[in-house]
Structures are given as structure tokens and as C-alpha cells.
Amino acid sequence: MENSEGDKPEGGELEPHPPTQQLCRFFSQGRYCSFGKKCRFLHVRKNIEEMGTASLSEGTAPNSHGPVGSEGTREPPIINYRAAPAAARRPCRYFISGHCIMEDRCRFWHPEQLPPVDDKQIQGRSRAPVPRPSVLQEVKLHDLTEDIIRQLRDTEIKQLKKRFPKDQLIIQERSDGKLTYYRATVEATDPDWPFDLKEIDIMVSFPDNYPQEIFTVDVPLDQNLPPVMAKRVQQASQEWLQAKHATNQLMGKVELLFRPFLRWLDRSLERLFTEGARQLKKDIDLEKAGLQFIPYQELQTAASERSDHSSDVDTAEAHEDMEETGKKEGEESVEGEKLVQPESLGHEEGQLQEEATHLVENIKISDPRRGTEVKLLGLALGENTATVVAQQITVCLQCNRCKVTADLTLTGRTPCSAQCEKCSANINAGFRPCMLHHYSDVLGYLDLHNATPADLVLQDCELTVCCLTCSQEGPLQNVYYGQPKELNCEYCHTKLSILAESTRFQFIQPRSNKSGPSAVNYKSIRDPAVQKGKPLPEKGTCKHYKQSHRWLRFPCCGRAYPCDVCHDENQDHIMELATRMICGFCAKEQLGQEKF
Predict the structure, then answer these.
(1) Burial (Cβ within 10 Å: 0-12, 13-18, ≥19) of residue 290
(2) Looking at CB atoms within 10 Å, which of 28, 303, 478, 566 has the fewest?
(3) E-state strands within 400-523
(4) 340-355 residue pLDDT tens
(5) How many CB atoms lie within 10 A of CB 372?
(6) Residue 228: CB partners within 8 Å, gap ≥ 6?
(7) What is the pLDDT of residues 152-194, one digit of tens each?
């Protein structure tokens, strides 16, 4: 008490000494204090920022003591500087972007004014972008001249030589020196290349008027590449070049196509190799089975060469006859012979051309194409399925007189005769089966009288399938549209499969040279009732549903009817909900989204 009384001033009252108040550790670290103004600790942030800045500028530690004032040394408050100085130095990114929801409670620094981002000077030496060298790549057609064509061609050849090194480029000239071939080795850049062969040799030649005309691409056969795959790559390359050139012509320009062709070839090489490998496998399997298919282009080329050779011989003989006749009979007979001879030559050339066409179309076919063709659309045979032949079919025919439909079962041995139930009209029908394989989807031909085909009941057809492994045949039944039919061979147990989406009937107009009253009037023969691309009868409606423009194919019997009531009126079994439908406007059969 004495000490306290001795400390009293002369005024008589005791002046309290301000106690040392600690800082709130939450608020001082920039965090949120849940007590707010009721907190018993001191809420100070500006002093911390100044102390942190001063400590950084003076090179002292953040926890060092400040200078001693005139009033005496004051013990600094206990502050946790583990996170506060670092957070105080860093500006708040949300405040800089425009708004910070923490406001004064934010632990980061909210500067009063910052220079905009656009005003920041980029340190270093400013450097203007270097323009790309101007290389003439494309020109409009109206600006094209001979000098520009020559310049474009030279540019393309220079780029080719620069693109391929000397060990991957071979330059060859033709014997006459008018054309130069460039043989280059193109290597696949795909890191996941699946084939052992990673490169292919191509031979290109640029015509004099390139790029007005496309350059030619050949794939040499003297490399480690099967001829089938080489032909596939060459054919696809020519198709791409022709399509690209046609597009440029429509756009009114010409451009250099070699570098775009290389990029396309690099992207498509795996697909082309895969397609060629599949074709090679088919050819090997067919060769093992004893079959051989000759491409239509080769047959047509051979027939045209034969017809050209015959026409040249006939023309030479005709000229010789004309010269001999002119010497004997004089100028008048020569003029008359000149008037008559071209007609005979044209007639003979027409006969030769017709014979050649007949030879090409009906090669190895004993019966020509006539009648109504039955084609299975979307036919897909398995890899081990060689051929499929129809032994018996069930077809839905429509009477030409009263439009009543009825089912008729036909075989390939004898024609069938029937009578319409309503108008008693005689209906004659015959079926000539064909062989289904990977290159033909024709099931056979119908010879009809007083009737037109409406639908093929594929479920009731009896087929015979031949195995490609053992060349043995076996029965095949209960095939549904849109559903793959799988079975095993009875002899070697190989898996066989077949799939057909729909059926199309097409009447084939026969060619006839007859004239006069004995000629048959083919206009009286009607087209099939159901043709793809043409509307169905009554546009698919019936007397029960006038607004439903479709036919439904019911899986219980495989037949198509406009509605379920029409199915029950014509069939005596329990109906199953249909899953496929036929459009009433275009007759396209497709899978329905739901059961009908």
C-alpha cells in the first residue's frame, strides 16, 4: 500500500497504468473472429502490415522489436507471425478482380490502387513477328496463265525434293524424256501402327499443265506389298485426287495437291491396308474353296479390246473392197459405195458391241437376267459362309385384277399355277434361284403372270448354306429380317452366319430385237407392288387406321400387314408385337423404336 501511495501524483488521484493487451490471434492472422467487437483481445491489422513491410524493407526478422521511444520501452504484444506476414504481403486476387466477400476480414492484402494489367510494360526487347515466306499454293482460275502454271509445277517439284531425302527419292525419266517419274517412300507416322510393313513406295508424275490436271499416282508392285493391297491404295488415291480436283473446279481455283495428298495418305493408310487385307483374305479363302471371281472391269476391258480389234479388221477389209470397186466402176460407184458402206459398218459394230456386252453381263450365267429380280438388301454373310441358295420360298403375291394378296410357295424345279379366291383369275408363277455370296445379293428371279410380288416371307423360306472351310452344304431355316442367324456347320462345326435387312423386287425390262405384231407388249407388265423409293399401296393405310402410313412386320409369321387387325383377319395364330416397320411413303423397312 505504501508503494501505491508513493506513486500518487500531486493531484491527489491515482492514474491507472494502461495494461498490456494481447492481439487477437485470429484477427491478426487475417482470419475471421467469431466474437467480433465483443472480443476481449485487440483487433489490429494495420500495425501488422506495417511491421511486416518494415521488417522486409530493413532486412530484419518479422519477430524483431521496434525502436525505443521517448516515453520508454514498451514490450511488444505476443503475435503469431507464422502466417500473418506472408498473407499480408500477398494481394487478394478476388479484390483485384473486382469483389471480395471477406472484405475487411480477408487475410490477404487489399491494395488501394493497382495499375491495370494493360499498362504493365513487358520487360525485354520488343520483336516484330517474322512473316512466313510467301509461297504460291493456289490461284484463281481467271488469274491462271502459262507462266503461273509453270511456276506452280516447279514449286511442287521443289517441295517434293525437299520433303524426301535422297535415300527415299528416286527420279526416273521415260525413254522419250517427256515425262519424269518420282518414286518416294512414304512411312506411317502413327505410333500405334498395327502392321509389320510400315512404309510404302509411291510413284508420281506431274503433267506439263499441272495443276490444271491432277498428277498420276502409281503403287509399284516390286515391293513387299501384296498386289491386292497395292491396287486398293492406288484406286483410293486416284479417287481422292479426282474428288479434290473437282471441288477446286467448283470453287474456281487450282492448288497444289501433293502435300495435302501426303497428309491424307498418312491418315488413311491404316484403313486402306485393313481393307486390302480383308480383300486378300477373301481371295485366299475363295481360292481354297475352288472359286475364282473375275472383276467386271477386266471383263469389260477384254471385251472392248476384242470388239475394237474386230472393228479395225472389218474396216481395213472394207477400205480394200472400196478401193477395188472404185478402180473398176469409176467415181460414181465409189460415191455410192461410200454412202452404203458406213451403214453396214455401223450395223456390224453394233452387233459386236452387243455381243461383247452380252458376254460381259452373262459370263458363267446359264440363264439371263429376266423377270422380277428378288434382292436381299443389307445382306451380310459371315467370314466362313461361302454361298447361300434358296430351295423353296414363300412369296406374297397381289392379283392384278382385284388387288387381293395371297401367299404362294415356289420351288426352283417347276412353275406353280393358282387361282384368285375373289376374281378366279389364273395366276402363274415360277422361281429361278441364284447363288448368294459375298459379291452378289440376288436371291433369284420370279416369272409372274397376272400377279405382282408384294413381300417375301423370309421366315418360311428353306435355304441351303455352304461352308467355306469344308465345302459342305447344310439346311438353313427360320431367318428373320434384321436379326443375324447363326449356326454351326454339321461337318466341321465352323460358325456360319447370315443377316438380311429387307427385300426389294425390281422388274427387269428384257431386251428384244423383234418388231411387228409378234413383239410382246411389255408395258402391260406391272411393276412390283412394293418398291423401295415408291409409296406402298394406299400409302400404307387400311380400313381400320386411315392415318397410319406404315406396314408392320410381325415376327410370329414374318409377314407385313398395315395393322394388328389385318393380321388377325388373315392369320389364325396368336399375334406377337411387331418390331420392324415399312414406311408407307418410301417403302423402306427399318427397325422401330418400340414394339407395335
Answers:
(1) exposed
(2) 478
(3) 405-411, 416-419, 426-433, 435-436, 442-449, 451-467, 473-476, 485-488, 495-499, 502-508
(4) 334 444 445 555 455 5
(5) 21
(6) 276, 279, 280, 283
(7) 989 989 989 888 888 888 888 877 777 888 999 999 998 888 8
